[in-house]
């Protein structure tokens, strides 16, 4: 029996074949770098709405960029937080100390003292300036490049290094990957290698704070690559629905390991614009401008504390070095990207601002940098007394069975005793700690 033409096929006959778009970065290794395609507004160009304004009024802040420091290194515009010189110097010191710490720990990993490390070079303002804008008892849910939060809150460097070395003084007892800190006393939630999990955790904590009638807010950080995870969107849904008092930070450093930001959606829109879709406040900020980061975070924190709801902040910055000590960025991006980055270096910019105010000098900067190098060196030597990778100085053997149950069940006690017996047979000279 003859059949007629397929009407659906006939209707599509003149259409072009479908094509799949695969994002490509602007520069590959060996390519010249030209950032002229970036739209970077002048400092002071964006208006600062009231902290309790309706969320739609922040839409221009999501597509623009909040900037405070001008080309003359002075603060301009309505977002200028008007910080006193002493606060600026303390912020500069915390940023410089974080960089000195990173440099020392990176060398330690290369020397075999630890297995792994991640630097935050070029991104120091995104965590430290934010921390200065928060209250000390606000809860922080960090990603793995927020070591500056702990440093700004005064957590001892020795304790951080003990954790990195997983030695006998590590308060986490060697159970976390190096750099994945946790500190209840400084309101610093345990870092997780499963990215974006901290977002719903932060929203849930903020909701609990509101349920209890507390005044503390929560804040969380993820990279722009992690914003493509389902946890990110689940968190924004809950934050919007329940008006959670939370500040959600996206650190857009242009690269998620070796995948550029386009794979997370940067080609279509800014990451801050996702706030518009969820009906919450949003801000896109120059992540290398410490004053702008401080101002945006303080605005969002004040808004949350006044029951104005959540804010999504995109920190537009650049990851100046590799993703981690396991990464070689020269394999996937142009070596010139770092040098040509138009927003400069956050430490240099804050230093120049203080110098322009007459409150700092190059000589003072050099003296401070030298002092901080010695401070980190002293902390490192103190921590190394507790052990480094492969030197056998670790927590007592039995602790591997602890911290799960209040009272250790009988079968785990038996396993612990059996493990000790077997270890003594294999290494007769070994004695239980």
Question: What secondary-structure arrangement, pairings included, does this model have?
Answer:
Layout lengths: L6 H5 L47 H5 L21 H26 L13 H10 L5 E3 L5 H6 L4 H9 L32 H14 L6 E6 L6 H13 L3 E7 L2 E2 L2 E2 L13 H5 L2 E6 L3 H16 L5 E6 L20 H4 L5 H11 L5 H23 L25 H17 L7
Parallel strand pairs: 1-2, 2-3, 3-7, 6-7
Antiparallel strand pairs: 4-5
Helix pairs in contact: 3-4, 3-12, 3-13, 4-10, 6-13, 7-8
Compact overview of the structure:
The protein is α/β, with parallel strands linked by helices. The protein has 14 helices and 7 strands. The protein has helices at residues 7-11, 59-63, 85-110, 124-133, 147-152, 157-165, 198-211, 230-242, 274-278, 290-305, 337-340, 346-356, 362-384, 410-426; strands at residues 139-141, 218-223, 246-252, 255-256, 259-260, 281-286, 311-316.
Structure description:
The protein is of the alpha/beta class and 433 residues long. Helices cover 38% and strands 7% of the residues. The chain has a five-stranded parallel beta sheet with strand order 1-2-3-7-6, sandwiched between helices. Strands 4-5 form a two-stranded antiparallel sheet. The longest helix is centred in the N-terminal third of the chain and has 26 residues, at 85-110. It is globular. 41% of the residues are buried.
């Amino acid at each position: 029996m003859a059949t007629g033409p397929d009407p659906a096929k006939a209707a599509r006959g003149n259409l072009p074949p479908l094509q799949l778009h695969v994002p490509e970065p602007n520069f590959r290794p060996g390519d010249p770098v030209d950032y002229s395609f970036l739209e970077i507004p002048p400092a002071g160009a964006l208006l600062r709405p009231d902290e309790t304004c309706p969320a739609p009024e922040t839409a221009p802040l999501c597509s623009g960029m909040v900037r405070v420091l001008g080309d003359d290194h002075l603060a301009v515009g309505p977002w200028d937080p008007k910080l006193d010189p002493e606060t600026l110097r303390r912020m500069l010191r915390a940023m410089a100390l974080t960089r000195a710490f990173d440099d020392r720990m990176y060398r330690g990993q290369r020397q075999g003292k630890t297995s792994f490390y991640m630097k935050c070079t070029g991104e120091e303002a995104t965590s430290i300036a934010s921390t200065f804008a928060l209250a000390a008892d606000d809860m922080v849910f960090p990603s793995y490049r927020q070591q500056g939060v702990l440093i700004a809150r005064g957590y001892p460097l020795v304790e951080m290094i003990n954790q990195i070395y997983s030695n006998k003084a590590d308060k986490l007892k060697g159970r976390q990957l190096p750099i994945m800190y946790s500190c209840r006393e400084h309101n610093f939630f345990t870092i997780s290698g499963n990215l974006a999990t901290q977002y719903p955790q932060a929203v849930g904590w903020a909701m609990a704070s509101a349920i209890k009638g507390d005044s503390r807010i929560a804040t969380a950080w993820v990279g722009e690559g992690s914003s493509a995870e389902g946890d990110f969107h689940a968190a924004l849904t809950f934050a919007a629905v329940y008006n959670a008092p939370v500040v959600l930070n996206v650190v857009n450093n242009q690269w998620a390991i070796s995948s550029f930001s386009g794979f997370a959606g940067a080609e279509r829109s800014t990451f801050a614009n996702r706030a518009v879709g969820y009906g919450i406040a949003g801000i896109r900020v120059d992540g290398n401008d410490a004053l702008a980061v401080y101002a945006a975070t303080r605005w969002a924190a004040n808004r949350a504390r006044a029951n104005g709801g959540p804010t999504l902040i995109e920190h537009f910055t650049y990851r100046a070095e590799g993703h981690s000590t396991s990464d070689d960025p020269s394999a996937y991006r142009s070596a010139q990207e770092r040098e040509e980055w138009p927003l400069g270096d956050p430490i240099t910019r804050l230093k120049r601002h203080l110098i322009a105010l007459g409150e700092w000098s190059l000589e003072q900067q050099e003296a401070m940098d030298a002092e901080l190098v010695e401070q980190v060196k002293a902390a490192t030597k103190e921590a190394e007394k507790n052990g480094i990778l492969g030197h056998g100085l670790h927590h007592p053997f039995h602790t591997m069975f602890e911290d799960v149950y209040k009272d250790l069940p009988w079968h785990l006690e038996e396993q612990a005793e059996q493990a000790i017996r077997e270890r003594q047979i294999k290494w007769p000279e070994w004695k239980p700690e």
